[in-house]
Predict the 3D structure of the following.
Amino acid sequence: MAVSTPRYSKTEFARLCDKIYQQKIASRHEAADSGKFVAIDIETGAFELDADALSAMNRLLARLPNAQMWLRRVGSRYAAHFGSRLERARE
């Protein structure tokens, strides 16, 4: 499998992904698919949703082998959280 090299800066990737997410995904999928992964091709706007990140990415790459892909979770700006986070005290 050929490795796709980025054609955009990280900032431009994020900007284009946010634009596509807001236009095509947020209003239609946030309620029903919250927490699922969405793989987005920032050049075409094509995307795939799945509970498994690798499955979403593989389906998108099967359709668009040279996709400039960005991965995130529906309802979040990120695909994963690294590091510690504050938790609410349980009542």
